[in-house]
Amino acid sequence: MTDKKPTGDVVLLTRLARSAYRNVDEKLLGMRLKEFTALSSLRDTGGRSQRELADALLMDANNLVLMLNILEGRGHATRARDPVDRRRHVVEITEGGRAALTAAEDAMQQADDDVLGRLNSQERADLGRLLAKALGDDSEE
């Protein structure tokens, strides 16, 4: 009998994330996974400050700016000074960004199926809810 120690949850999550990255076809998606995540967040929240978006995506502020430059260049997002606090920039998804995100969601569904295909629909719903809770994402509850 072996005393096999169970793999830690963080290790399993890391392996799952690597599997997800491998299964996301950027060409089919039409954007990088981080860009998809950013546009999803902007659509779901109606816009955010750059700081809020960086925190939500767990991204360094400088890397976020580089990604926002790409999204703005494609016409998928806009940044504007917050009229209440001119030091802040508010980021919003554009109609072009909504269209690109909608088109990418079908490809993302296939990636979800490839990565989570061993789970039934209830298990997938539970996993999504638990991951959102662990990340402190109240929008999923």
Describe this structure in words.
- This protein has 141 residues and is mostly helical.
- The chain has helices at residues 9-23, 26-29, 33-45, 50-57, 61-73, 95-116, 121-134, and strands spanning 48-49, 77-81, 89-93.
- The chain has a 3-stranded antiparallel sheet with strand order 1-3-2.
- Helix 1 (9-23) packs across helix 6 (95-116) and helix 3 packs across helix 6.
- The longest helix has 22 residues, at 95-116.
- The N and C termini lie far apart (42 Å).
- The model has no long low-confidence stretch (mean pLDDT 89).
What level of helicity do the residues show?
A: 55-70%
Strand order of the largest sheet: 1-3-2
**Radius of gyration, CA atoms, in whole angstroms:** 17 Å
Number of strands: 3
Quick one: biggest sheet?
A: 3 strands, antiparallel
